[in-house]
Write a structure and sequence with these properties.
Order of helices and strands: HHHEE
Shape: flat
Mean pLDDT: 85
Radius of gyration: 17 Å
Low-confidence stretches: none
Largest sheet: 2 strands, antiparallel
Structural class: mainly alpha
Strand order of the largest sheet: 1-2
Helix content: 55-70%
């Protein structure tokens, strides 16, 4: 029997450039998507108001943006590994 947490919190495989910061951000992004899905389902079923759902998703988005900035994701978009591809 599969682990219950695998069912509730599924993880997809990472296909990008393997660097520690990319793996951490990918895990954070997957968690963000899972939580947004739960919040949307709660709002759709009437357990949360639209305003509460918006506030929760907005807070999750701000956290995701903060971790992206802390990890330095996307700050050097034209670099591929150790090679500098700028002219």
């Amino acid at each position: 029997m599969a682990d219950r947490s695998d069912f509730l919190y599924p993880r997809s495989r990472y296909y990008g450039q393997v660097k520690p910061e990319n793996l951490v951000f990918n895990a954070n992004l997957q968690e963000f998507a899972q939580r947004v899905s739960y919040i949307c389902n709660l709002e759709t079923s009437g357990k949360l108001s639209s305003e509460e759902a918006y506030k929760k998703i907005h807070a999750l988005w701000k956290d995701l943006k903060r971790t992206k900035k802390q990890l330095g994701i996307g700050e050097t978009p034209f670099q591929d590994g150790d090679r500098n591809t700028e002219a």
